[in-house]
Sequence to fold (82 residues):
Amino acid sequence: MSSPTNTPSDTNRTIPPEISSEIRRLIHDLSNALEIVLQAGYLLSTADFDPSVKEWAGLLDGGAQQALTIHRELREYIRQHS
Fold:
């Protein structure tokens, strides 16, 4: 996943504090939900299942890792623009 590109007009914009606060709250809640998914995926990967279930667990982990990357990008964007 590539990082978002900032145009010159984007880099000078500041997110209003009330919006920034709400986005930070949502990012925090997303972080908690991602932690549950990542931990459950890890536990599934350690269990003794047939290969097809292991494959699904791998897909789950891949999707969770992508969501974690997006989460980090959102956090950084908010930090830079607040």
Observations:
- The CA atoms of residues 1 and 70 lie 8 Å apart.
- The chain has one domain: 16-81.
- Helices lie at 8-11, 17-46, 51-81.
- The first helix runs from residue 8 to 11.
